[in-house]
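Minutes, project check-in
Item: structure for the 113-residue chain
Input as provided by the requester:
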Amino acid sequence: MKFIVAVVQPDRLDDVLQKLEEKEIHLVTVTSVMGRGRQKGISAVYRSHKEVGGLLKKVKIEIAVNDEFAKTAVDAIIQGARTGHIGDGKIFVMDLKECVRIRTGETDGVAIG
């Protein structure tokens, strides 16, 4: 099992979710976050207005998948998030030791779906 965390531009979220849906990856958690990368929060243009400051608005997408879906999920995120410009984001893939579905008590790959 893998736990995938992607930090992307907010305006790319719909495209990322669409690409994941096309690959039949439906279980995602999305959070609005702020952060900075190599650009160190230097001004960026977002939805036609310039943002200045140490932190820029981003979206964090979290996905738990069985091993056979990990590469598919990463590829879908890349396809949906890539603009070719600085600040497109990052994807982190980590091993997931355990997963439990609270309602049924199912564990691991069965609990993920």
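Outcome recorded: Residues 2-112 form a domain with the Alpha-Beta Plaits fold (CATH 3.30.70.120).
No further action items on this chain.
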